[in-house]
Amino acid sequence: MFRLSNLLSSVVEEKKPRVLDGSIAIWNFTNRCNLSCMHCYSKADLDSKDVLSTEKIMDTLPRLKNSGVKFIIFSGGEPLTRKDLFDIALRCKELGIVTYLSTNGLYVTKSNAQKIIDTFNYVGVSIDGSEKTHDHFRGLKGSFIESMKAVKLLNSCSGAKVGIRFTITKETYDDLKFIFELAEKENIPKIYISHLVYSGRGLDNLEMDLSKTQRREAVEFIIDKAFEYYNDGRDIEIVTGNMEQDAILFLDRFAKEYPALKDEMQERLVSWGGNSAGRKLLNIDSVGNVKPDPFFPKVIGNIFDNDFEDIWRDKPIELLEKLRVHPRKISGKCEECDYIDICNGGSRSRAYAIYDDMWAEDPSCYLSDFEIKRG
User: Fold this and answer.
1) Cα separation, 290 vs 269, whole angstroms
2) Is this model's pTM higher than 0.85 or not?
3) Rg for the chain (alpha carbons), in Å?
4) What is the C-alpha to C-alpha distance for residues 193 and 195, in angstroms, rounded to an integer?
5) What are the average pLDDT values for consecutive 10-residue runs of the chain, which has 375 residues?
6) Cα 4–244–163 angle (5° rounding)?
7) Which residues have CB under 8 Å from 112's CB, separation 6+?
8) DSSP 3-state assignment of 300?
9) What is the pLDDT of residue 152?
C-alpha cells in the first residue's frame, strides 16, 4: 500500500514519517457475497457457507495481537453478511487493534450506517467506475446506485472516515478520471486505487489487465492528481495498492518538484520498504488459511491446525523467512534495478502466475531499463 499523498505532505512540511509499528492482517471472515466481481481473488459467491465460527475468531484475535498485528482489514466476500461482525470488531477495539471495513456497500442502511462508522476506524466502499462500468464489472445491474447511496450515507454520519476503492483494469481504465471527479464532487476524502493481481477470477480474467503503456499512463495521471490536490490544498488522500513500483515513478516526479528534498523522500521510501507480503502484511482466508497476502499462491499455515503465533512469529516456514529478507533476492530486471530497496520486487503472486517462479521479476513492472538506474 503506497500512501503517496501522505508522503508528499509529510516530507514537504517536515512532518514525522507515518510508520507502521506492527503488521496488517487482511481477514476474509466470509466467502459469501451478493456480487460476482470480475477480479475477485477469492471467487466469492452468495452460496458460500461460513467456516470460521465466532468462537474460533475470538480465540484467534488475542494471538494476532500477541504477534504484533496492529490493524485488521475486515474483508470477504462481503463482511457485512456476518451477523457477528460488530462483535468481532468490538473485541478488536478492546485489544487495541485498529479496524478497517472493506465493503461493497449494498448492506449499508440508514439503520446501521452510524453503527458502522462508530465501530470501524475507516470504511472503504468499492466503486469501479461510472454506473455502466461498475455494474458490468461487479456483475449486478443497479449495484452502482446502491453502493453510492452507501458512500453518501456513511459520509454524512458523525465522525465518518470513508473512502472509495477502485480496481484499475482494461474494463475500468477509461473511468479513472471519473473516479477522481466523483471524489471531488461528493467530498470523499480518500481514493484507494488497486492494480490487478493474478489470483482467483483476476487470474481467470487475465486478459483484462492493463498493458504496460496503459499502466504507466494511469500511474502518471494518479501522481499528477496527488500533486494537484496538495498544491490546491484539497484534502483528498490518494493511495495505490499492489504496484509498489509506483513509488519509484513518484520519486522521480518529486525530485523535479522539490530537488532539495529528494534524498529525504528516498530515505523514507526505502524505510517504507515496498511490497510487504509476509513481512508487515498477512492474510487469513475464509477457511483459516494464513498467507503472506490475499493473492498469494502458497499457504503458510492454518489457524485450525496451528497456533497463529507459531505460524507468523515463532516457527515461520522457509518461504516466510525468504519473503522477510529486504530487499528480496529477485531475478530478471530486478537484479539490475537500483531501486529494489524501494519496491522490494513487487508482487510475488503475479510472478508466480506468469513465470511459475516465486522469485522472478514482477511481470507488471512498467519501468524502463534507464529508469531502474539511479542517476
Assistant:
1) 27
2) yes
3) 20
4) 7
5) 96 88 95 90 88 98 98 96 97 98 97 97 97 94 97 96 97 97 96 94 91 97 98 97 97 97 97 96 98 96 97 97 97 96 96 96 95 86
6) 45
7) none
8) coil
9) 97
What's the one-letter identity of residue 52? L
Over residues 146-159, the pLDDT tens digits come to 999 999 999 999 99
Cell of 65: 495481537
| CA–CA separation, 322 and 330 (whole Å) | 11
CA angle 78, 190, 91 (to 5 degrees): 50
Number of H helices, E strands in the chain: 15, 10
- Let me know: does 126 contact 147? Beta carbons within 8 Å: yes
User: What are the cell numbers at 218?
Assistant: 494511469
Nearest-CA neighbor of 1 among 162, 190, 186?
190
Per DSSP bridges, beta strands 237-241 and 281-284 are unpaired
**Phi, psi (rounded to 5 degrees) for 72:** -125, 125
87 is written with which cell numbers?
462483535
3-class DSSP state of 132: helix
CA distances from 109 to 32, 90, 123, 182, 243 (A): 19, 20, 14, 21, 34
CA–CA distances in Å: residue 44 to residues 76, 201, 352? 8, 9, 22
**Residues 240/4, Cβ–Cβ less than 8 Å:** yes
Q: Which three cell numbers stand for residue 229?
A: 490536490
Q: What is the pLDDT of residue 36?
A: 86
Q: Identify residue 23 by its one-letter amino acid code.
A: S
What is the DSSP code (8-state) at residue 19? -
Burial class (CB in 10 A: 0-12, 13-18, 19+), 341: middle
